[in-house]
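Ticket opened by: R.M.
Priority: normal
Category: complex prediction / small molecule

The reporter submitted a protein together with protoporphyrin IX containing FE and asked that the result be attached to this ticket for the collaborator who will pick it up next week. Submitted input follows.
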Amino acid sequence: MTVKQYTREEISKWDTKKENVFIIDNVVYNVTEFLDEHPGGHEVLVNLAGKDASEDFDDVGHSLDAKELMKKYVVGELVEADRVQVQKRHVAWEDSKVEGDTGFTSSWKFPVLLGIVVTVLYSYLFG
Ligand code: HEM
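Result attached by the on-call engineer:
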């Protein structure tokens, strides 16, 4: 399935009185039908019509449910030339998770395993 491609210019010239479209992370959404259902209100979405709403969307810290729900309103994506690199802010905690984990020998597992091996060996040899 090919997704319809839009330029940023097309989005900014959209007739936002009729339809509410905006961009979040290079994906184009049409939320006209969703305006009155949005738990965060009609107004915030209307103000962002025709714009790139990535930061505003992210600042709110939308739930996973909200991110699932958005998929319903996808109408296309930006043409390659107009895309920006999507920042990995949604998964920032995953990056920090890796930090500080410098391998097996520095984790708690190594000394524990070493202790078990020494105990078993000791009792085998001298027990
Ligand atoms: C397709 C796009 C969007 C969808 C499907 C969506 C959906 C939702 C949902 C389900 C909630 C309830 C709380 C949660 O589950 O996180 C919510 C809250 C909210 N949303 Fe959105 N949203 C969208 C775009 C936006 C944008 C672009 C803004 C811009 C600022 C925004 C601002 C807010 C605010 C202020 C709240 C209220 C947060 C609160 O009361 O704690 N939303 N949205």
